[in-house]
Amino acid sequence: MSKLQMKTALKYHISDYKNTVLIMYLCVYLAVLMILIFGNVKISSSGSSVRISTTGGLEIASMITIFVVGLNSFKENFKFLSANGMSRKTQLCSTIASLGILSAVFALIDTINSIIFTHVMVYRPMLVQAYGPRYGYALNVYPFRSPILTAQILAEDFLWLLCTCFFISMIGLWITTLFYRMNRGMKIAVGIAVPVLLLNGLPYLDELYFGGAFLKALARAASAAWGLSGGYNPYIAMLSMLVFSGIFAALTFLLARRAALKK
Amino acid sequence: MTFAEEKPIYLQIEEKIEDAILAGAFSEESQIPSTTEFSVNYKINPATALKGISLLVDSGIVYKKRGLGMFVCPGAKGIILSKRKKDFFDSYVSTLLSEAKKLNLSRDDIFKMIERGYDNEQN
Amino acid sequence: MSKIEIKNITKTFNDVTALKNVNVNFEENHIYGLLGRNGAGKTTLLNLITGKMFPTSGEILVDGERAIENDRALSKIYCMTELNLYPEKMRVKEAFHWSAGFYPQFDMEYANTLCSQFELKTNQKIKNLSTGYTSIFKIIIALSCGSEIVIFDEPVLGLDANHREMFYKELIQNYSNHPRTFILSTHLIEEVATIIDRVIIIKNGEVIMDDEVQNVLNLGCTVSGPAGAVDQYIAGKKVLGVSTLGGLKSAYLLGQIHDIPNNLEMGKLDLQKLFIQLTNS
Fold this sequence. Notes:
The structure holds three protein chains of three kinds. Chain A has one domain. Helices cover about 75% and strands about 5% of the residues of chain A. In chain A, strands 1-2 form a two-stranded antiparallel sheet. Chain A has a two-stranded parallel sheet with strand order 3-4. By secondary structure, chain B is mainly alpha-helical. A three-stranded antiparallel sheet of chain B has the order 1-3-2. By secondary structure, chain C is an alpha/beta fold. Chain C folds into two domains: about 210 residues, Rossmann fold, CATH 3.40.50; about 60 residues. Chain C has ten helices and 14 strands. In chain C, helix 4 packs antiparallel against helix 5.
């Protein structure tokens, strides 16, 4: 693996992300501005207005964005990097590494944003929304105040967001690579069959044969993997997501290994 | 400049440079263009240009000054002239005679034509 | 200086065999002409060399190393293809910048000089370039990247006569200054016949010719004259093809002839004519 190639490829990927990151945060800040301006409710009798809106989880923007970035991380890069003499192995390593860096950037900015948002309005970061009790914040209770972001929360917030964004980007990357390898017939078949099977077929069969037990077990397993059963432990989630990321990355490698450059 | 199909290009290059020397375009002891310049100008492979120039070196028509390039040897004109005179029969006379044969021209016809040629020149 | 060895390469697509047991070497210090009719397998061979696809069997070595998924081998080769591999929104100067990152010997000054020579504005988006200027853009990168092996696949597509002349002259100058391995794959045989020094002809997925141009030009000749006399003369000889114009017949023969009857004319077979005769059928 050539160091020079990796370095240049990383610079290339990152330069590609700059605009996306800028625009996304612009939208996020705009949204916050809207909430601040319009999120007030007037109480008629005394004539004063009370800010009773509460928001949270704006990190979802980063997650959606990085998923889309992942979905765009194969075809164009494959053509361009192949034209510049890079093996598929090295190409993928650079893509995955750059998605890791992007995840870290999102995680960092989102954590800092959480500090800002919790001070200008009532805001709960996603981590607190999901793992609240760990930090002394009850779930499913309407919050009237922002949580106080301790060093522990901030550190775990950053790490958890990092793992989540990376995991989501790996899914996007895997999906787009899978579709690249498929011919048109397969794409149509998968595009129809997968949603139908997952949303209709699976629940139906599950109900028929297992009385719904399979999906219940799946839900329990997912809950456990995300550290949400019998406790609220984000570190278990981080570990699970890293493992799953590794699996998706490995699957992507297998798909890309024999990919031929198409016209 | 296009190349006739008959002769290998490197021989044609040799010929072109000889012609240039005879015509005075490259005077004796002056530098001739480099292999690169010849190959770019005539759009030929540099190895071909080099082959042609090497023939000239072998014939003593040009020589190499280390670090500077190729130069025309003194007396090159004379060498070229005597070389061409030797080749004159093969290059021109044989061809003339075989074409004459095709056209059924006799020996006398040829002599008369040659005389006519000289007369035209004098006028 | 690097060389490529193609060993027993076969490539099949479903039930079509694009290349059959191809064995050929590309050595340093030569300008190769890779010739073949449409669909003969030239582009497939180049795609295999550059790792864009994988052979069905056989191997490709660059300086003795297997080229498959090999960064070191792949970075020694630059290939300008017909395909458009650059991101649409990328500008010419950005493409140069990245190429310089991937090919450390990229000569940016030279690239910019070529841009002014060919009148290519570096600020343009690649997708907005015309066919001709897309070729020019790719040619400039190929000439500037400084890699040991440079492949030109249909380099003059869309180029006007002036630019074609400029390209060939620049190619020769470049090669002369930095001798390495150039491979020109083209249909314009007459134009490159004097520039290449080795020629490789592919027909129906097989290499039918791999030799120095000088030897190839001596391979054949034409014999023309009255049809009857020509037929009589060529009986028993290796004939590549014939063409008839009324009573005048021309035959293209493999091999040299030394004694020709008076009523017949002998001529040389130039590279393009030889190619056509060899690949007709």
